[in-house]
């Protein structure tokens, strides 16, 4: 059985020699590892007063991961990761004030306990960021809000690329939900929308974003459930990205507020610290997270 299982693991890897980072969670990994950030994820971006396992759970055999990379039949090779926010999901960054405008829980890719070292390894040359996303049927998002669910964030707070759901934040608030609220938006560094796809919460949505760190380009591939990935953009310039600006690979749920009319003009645009949050419990499921070198 052990031998069979490891064979399955080989089959599931894309081309394992090119695999730089594997965030596909084996069944041997326990939830307790999330609380100590001892696995492939740094789990520090979460509500200040609760443990990581208050906001995230490895679902064991109770949910099926994306069929795209779990092709060896049953059991699949990885566990689904549930990531949730609630009203306590107020992150307090080191040395900064609490982020009362946001509600956020994010996993950051790390290897050997070090996200920084991994960034340097996976953000040169041409690398492909894979991730699959499904709705949490019990904890739907509120499409009147903006969500940032996957992004690579250099230290200046910009995103090399990002995946957005919901209604893009505007000040003043426009008609909600926005027309494209129920779609994934794949954004470049300048926030141009490169690709949109309707989010059907009951299905796995598979993304692969190819980043050329030297030529500063992006290319998006996409599929649903077990269908093969297909290119949905050509290789596009990432016009405002800067050479050497690498950063942490985040995935999870980051919910922006709605403008509070009672706030001052300055506070209305300070989405990090101000604005309205209903405090609902919401979540997404992830699987198929890995990075390979082309
Ligand atoms: C949510 O949290 C904020 C900030 O701590 C608090 O002001 C608000 O009353 C809470 N809302 C609910 C519904 O608990
Ligand atoms: C953590 O809990 C304390 C005590 O209840 C509360 O005063 C504080 O605002 C909480 N911090 C955050 C970031 O929610
Ligand atoms: C993590 O990696 C970076 C870059 O290689 C290195 O500078 C740093 O010392 C490492 N941190 C730890 C805790 O090992
Ligand atoms: C969703 O957000 C909108 C805008 O803030 C709010 O009016 C609505 O009550 C929220 N819905 C739920 C279920 O919390």
From TrEMBL:
Q: Which Gene3D superfamilies match?
A: 2.60.120.1160
Pfam families, A to Z: GH131_N
Q: Where is the signal peptide?
A: 1-16
Q: What is the protein's given name?
A: Glycoside hydrolase 131 catalytic N-terminal domain-containing protein
Keywords (A to Z) from UniProt: Signal
Question: Per its UniProt record, what InterPro entries does this chain match?
Answer: GH131_N (IPR041524)
Q: Which PANTHER family match?
A: GH131_N DOMAIN-CONTAINING PROTEIN, GLYCOSIDE HYDROLASE 131 CATALYTIC N-TERMINAL DOMAIN-CONTAINING PROTEIN
Say if the entry is tagged with keyword Transmembrane. Answer: no
**The Glycoside hydrolase 131 catalytic N-terminal domain, residue ranges:** 19-293
């Amino acid at each position: 059985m052990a031998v069979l299982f490891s064979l399955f693991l080989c089959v599931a890897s894309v081309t394992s020699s090119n695999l730089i980072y594997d965030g596909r969670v084996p069944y041997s990994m326990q939830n307790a590892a999330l609380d100590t950030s001892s696995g492939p994820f740094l789990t520090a971006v979460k509500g200040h007063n609760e443990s990581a396992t208050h906001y995230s759970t490895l679902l064991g055999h109770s949910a099926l991961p994306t069929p795209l990379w779990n092709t060896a039949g049953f059991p699949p090779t990885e566990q689904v990761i549930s990531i949730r926010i609630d009203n306590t999901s107020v992150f307090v960054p080191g040395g900064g004030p609490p982020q009362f405008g946001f509600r956020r829980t994010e996993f950051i890719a790390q290897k050997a306990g070090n996200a920084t070292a991994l960034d340097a390894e996976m953000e040169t040359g041409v690398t492909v960021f894979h991730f699959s996303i499904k709705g949490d049927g019990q904890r739907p998002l509120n499409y009147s809000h903006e969500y940032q669910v996957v992004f690579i964030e250099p230290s200046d707070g910009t995103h090399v690329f990002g995946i957005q759901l919901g209604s893009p934040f505007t000040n003043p608030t426009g008609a909600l939900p926005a027309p494209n609220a129920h779609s994934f938006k794949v954004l470049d560094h300048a926030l141009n929308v490169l690709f949109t796809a309707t989010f059907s919460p009951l299905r796995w949505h598979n993304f692969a974003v190819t980043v050329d760190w030297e030529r500063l380009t992006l290319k998006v591939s996409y599929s649903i459930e077990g269908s093969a990935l297909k290119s949905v953009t050509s290789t596009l310039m990432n016009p405002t990205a800067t050479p050497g600006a690498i950063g942490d690979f985040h995935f999870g749920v980051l919910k922006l507020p709605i403008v509070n009319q009672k706030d001052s003009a300055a506070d209305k645009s300070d989405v990090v610290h101000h604005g309205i949050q209903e405090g609902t419990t919401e979540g997404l499921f992830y699987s198929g997270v890995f990075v390979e070198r082309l």
